[in-house]
Amino acid sequence: MQFNNLAFESENGIGVLTFNRPKALNALNSEVLSELKQFCEAVPSLDVRCLIVTGAGDKAFVAGADIKGLSEKPIAEAGATAEEGQLAFRALEELPIPVIAAVNGFALGGGLELALSCDYIVMSSNAKFGLPEVTLGLIPGFGGTQRLSRCVGQGIANFVTLTGDIYPAKYALQWGLAVDVVEPEALMDVCRKQAATLASRSSTAMHLSKRAIREGYDLPLREGEALEVKLFEEAFASEDKVEGIAAFIEKRKPDFK
Ligand code: CO8
């Protein structure tokens, strides 16, 4: 797959998707968002069981929406522009495979919103994050007002969004935004190791788990439990369940297809 602003490579079922506009700190313009959506549509046809998302260069994961591009947008296109980003990030969020955000530098505005659309975040110790939209007279438009509060709670989401300040990675760990903060040189190795573990798990069970957590999040508890029952039944009827339980009983590693 060839893109102008994304690089993709894969090995042993682990894919790495790199946002690749280092001169603009990997900022998101319409072309990048459209390429992300195309990439997500192609994922089921790729031989990939786990995806790592990162940014090119050593300075930025993604420094947000392309501010120069935004400056040229007519007011009438504002809603469509926000929706364009939301649809691309939703496609990423709904991928059937696990997705790790390897945040290697600035994750600002749309960049933080991108990371929040992945299943979880690992940050390098020199990464910085924030939602600076209020400093531009804007609000987050690619899902940030919704996903940040779901991830860290409303108080911290209010704090990050209203201050518009840029925060060091240690706060991501403290606030439960990132699952780990590691030395910059170790970031990709740590993520690849985690991806290898995920790639060895049942892809059916991971997909159903992702759906149960994501789709259940907005439901009342009893409806969420009902959803869990329905998805549990699907897992129970799967070939992976037969293999996983047989492997346990036979004291061997499961060989999930
Ligand atoms: N868009 C376009 N270009 C950018 C962006 C960006 N978001 N960020 C950096 N760049 C460019 C700079 O303009 C500069 O280019 P040039 O060399 O041609 O002048 C190059 O990248 C390097 O950047 P700096 O020289 O500024 O590097 P510094 O190390 O001095 O600063 C910062 C790094 C702190 C990251 C700084 O670049 C910065 O503040 N960037 C903007 C961050 C920001 O505000 N992001 C939020 C954008 S708004 C957003 O994401 C809204 C999402 C929802 C949109 C909804 C649509 C309707």
What does this structure look like?
There is one protein chain. The protein has 257 residues and is α/β, with parallel strands linked by helices. It has helices spanning 30-42, 67-71, 78-93, 110-116, 144-152, 154-163, 169-175, 187-200, 203-217, 221-236, 239-249; strands at 6-11, 14-19, 50-55, 60-62, 99-103, 106-108, 120-124, 128-130, 167-168, 180-182. The strands form two sheets. It has a six-stranded mixed beta sheet, sandwiched between helices. Strands 4-6-8-9 form a four-stranded mixed beta sheet. Helix 1 links the parallel strand 2 and strand 3 (50-55). Helix 1 runs parallel beside helix 3 (78-93) and helix 4 crosses helix 5 (144-152). The longest helix is centred in the first third of the chain and has 16 residues, at 78-93. The protein is globular and about 60 Å long. The model has no long low-confidence stretch (mean pLDDT 97). The structure holds octanoyl-coenzyme A. Residues 24-25, 27, 63-68, 78, 81-82, 85, 106, 108-110, 132-133, 136, 138, 140-142 line the site of octanoyl-coenzyme A. Octanoyl-coenzyme A (CO8) binds next to helix 2, helix 3 and strand 6.
The ordered string of helix (H) and strand (E) elements is EEHEEHHEEHEEHHEHEHHHH
Count the DSSP helices: 11
- Bound compounds, please? octanoyl-coenzyme A
- The termini sit apart by 24 Å
Low-confidence stretches: none
Radius of gyration: 19 Å
How does the overall form come out from the CA principal axes? globular
How are the strands of the biggest sheet laid out side by side?
1-2-3-5-7-10
Strand elements, count: 10
How much β-strand is present in the residues?
Answer: 15-25%
Structural class designation: alpha/beta
Major β-sheet profile: 6 strands, mixed
Quick check: average pLDDT? Answer: 97
Which percent range fits the helix content? 40-55%
